[in-house]
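Much of what follows relies on a compact textual record of a protein's fold. The record below shows the convention in full:
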Amino acid sequence: MKGRRTTSQDALGNPEPLVARPLKAAFSFELEQLRLQIEVMALKVDEAIQHSTDVLLTGDLELAQQVVDADDGIDDMLVSLTERCYSLLTLQNPVASDLRLVVSVIRILADLERMGDLCLRVVNLAADQPLLASNEETFRILRRMAYEAQGLFRVAMQAWSTQDLKLAMTLEQRDDAMDAHNSSLMQAILALQGANAVPLAVKSATAGRAFERIADHSVMIGERLRYMLTGNVESLWNEVRPSRRPFYRP
């Protein structure tokens, strides 16, 4: 009678202890939970973007304080999930695709946390909302930028949630509208005149820059998803290429 088999073979044909199977299953479960936690954190960021838009439009000081208070939760998730990623990398020996997932999660966590901080820049302007709203043209552009940033972020997270590579690859093109709004805002700021021109220019540029950067981070989430799913390093190059763009393009 033949002895009981205690090994199987891995993808390379090497002997693999059967005990490794439940360990791999547990690791796969941890990876899936990590991916889902990104979606939970994204919901918090989405709420922050929505509320910061409302603060821009209304100057609601209480809502602004809610955004400030809620940012602690976003920061907490960054720390706890980053530690979880490092623990997985230390305790496991992930294959290439799993390694790309963990690395991508670490980078997306940083993107999400940064977006939360950018929302703080907007809500810190709550007391200046009457000033921002005093110029119809610049305020109209800021409103469009706020909506554009929120729309881009939601597309990015839909792509992440569904692992939709095609949708992720549309983000850079969708970001062209934000670039156009930013150029229009700079032109409108340069045309400001009057006693309040300088403070209005500074506050408007601060808000506009925050929404533009939220859009940029959304595009990068799409690039990170692309790298995670394909291993294509071109997406990593796209992360550094935007820094070569001029600050202002007429």
Notes: The domain at 20-244 is CATH 1.20.58.220 (Methane Monooxygenase Hydroxylase; Chain G, domain 1). The radius of gyration is 22 Å.
